[in-house]
């Protein structure tokens, strides 16, 4: 990763450029999604058992009181890895597809950018989906002694993920 320590500028559309975009995506997505994990934990548990908590704050307080402070970060590993991979794909592939589509069409405009973002998110979600599935299972159904069930149906939520994330990413 010579581009991280070099004094010379990164050449646009070079391998170092795409690596920098991918690393930027990891840094933009993994820590931010991990930071709000306590809210996600409460949301996921409420989806499985409505009425479990009266509010987000009450849910977090209940988890801390009954399970311990660190339990509000249940699913942290899967979240950090999954959203890191998604960010890597979203940022890196977007720049790649933007260049590739522009070159193939001979022009660059908003439609090219929309296509590039949709293509990037399509691939990024393939990387995210199994980790998101594991995170939800860890947060809602999997007791610690049943980890073998963690890897079942890891892509069952991929199509709904695409329907949510692809339009969102295109708008962004």
UniProtKB/TrEMBL annotation:
<protein>
    <submittedName>
        <fullName>Unnamed protein product</fullName>
    </submittedName>
</protein>
């Amino acid at each position: 990763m010579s581009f991280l320590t070099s004094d010379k500028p990164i050449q646009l559309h070079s391998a170092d450029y795409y690596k920098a975009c991918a690393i930027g995506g990891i840094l933009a997505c993994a820590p931010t999604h991990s930071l709000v994990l306590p809210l996600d934990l409460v949301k996921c548990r409420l989806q499985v058992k409505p009425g479990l908590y009266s509010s987000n704050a009450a849910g977090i307080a209940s988890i801390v009181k009954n399970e311990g402070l660190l339990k509000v970060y249940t699913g942290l590993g899967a979240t950090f890895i999954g959203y890191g991979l998604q960010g890597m794909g979203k940022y890196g592939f977007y720049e790649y597809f933007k260049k590739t589509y522009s070159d193939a069409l001979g022009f660059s405009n908003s439609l090219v950018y929309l296509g590039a973002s949709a293509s990037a998110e399509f691939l990024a979600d393939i990387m995210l989906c199994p980790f998101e599935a594991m995170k939800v299972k860890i947060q809602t159904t999997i007791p610690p002694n049943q980890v073998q069930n963690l890897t079942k149906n890891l892509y069952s939520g991929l199509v709904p993920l695409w329907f949510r994330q692809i339009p969102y990413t295109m708008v962004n």
